[in-house]
């Protein structure tokens, strides 16, 4: 009998404890859930797409190239000079001559013997476009695994943009496209926040996918008024 009473009391205490515990959880769920919901998701997207080696926000070339600092790009090219020549004769050294590389078929420079990784890349990419150079120069090994260009890469997106603008002055067979203000909008924000990295999370989050997908998704949309005005001059 005494045992039963004890059991009842203990059971009641346990049940009360459970109810209190349950209520605490319910209230904490109810009250905490609403405010952090959005920032929590944004951070998750930034972490999953922002850290990738090849993933990057491709700028709108028609917007950034005319504004790029060609002299600064030439200064950056000093980092390539131990392996590459930039003269119009297209001399090869450790790496292939880079005069005219923009718009050239990858792995196609006369007199240079490329490795298999570059040959494979060339089989899938008709020319060196701005997009491809931008990603390749960020992380050569990350973008073309096994490539024999043993260069760590240029982390700063502005360095790469300036360098690509400099390469454009060296016999490039690639035109600068007209600006696409719609695609340029995130890049504009990026320049305020110092280089593209800060823009990466918001941009990729907005597009809901990887950076290359974002660039592809934006380009085919019809250009709004402003772009037509810009083209009309
Ligand atoms: C340590 C040497 C080295 C440095 C530094 C270097 N490269 Fe290279 N680069 C190479 C080699 C080697 C290749 C050929 C890779 C292959 O065959 O797989 C190459 C290939 C390339 C290609 C492909 C060319 C083609 O004809 O398809 C480009 C573009 C390029 N480099 C740009 C650059 C730029 C721009 C820099 C400076 C930011 C740079 N490289 C720094 C060694 C280097």
Helix-strand layout with pairing:
Blueprint: H1 2-33, H2 37-50, H3 61-67, H4 70-76, H5 116-124, H6 130-138, H7 140-143, H8 157-168, H9 181-192, H10 199-207, H11 211-218, H12 225-232
Helix pairs in contact: 2-10, 4-8, 6-8, 9-10, 10-11
The structure holds heme C.
Heme C binds at residues 79-80, 82-84, 94-96, 98, 101, 106-107, 109, 114-115, 117-118, 128, 137, 147-151, 154, 163.
Would you mind describing this structure in some detail?
The protein has 233 residues and is mainly α. It has a domain at 54-179: Cytochrome c-like domain (Cytochrome Bc1 Complex, Chain D, domain 2, Orthogonal Bundle), CATH 1.10.760. The chain contains twelve helices and no strands. The protein has helices spanning 2-33, 37-50, 61-67, 70-76, 116-124, 130-138, 140-143, 157-168, 181-192, 199-207, 211-218, 225-232. It is elongated and about 100 Å long. Heme C (HEC) is lined by residues 79-80, 82-84, 94-96, 98, 101, 106-107, 109, 114-115, 117-118, 128, 137, 147-151, 154, 163. Heme C is lined by residues 79-80, 82-84, 94-96, 98, 101, 106-107, 109, 114-115, 117-118, 128, 137, 147-151, 154, 163.
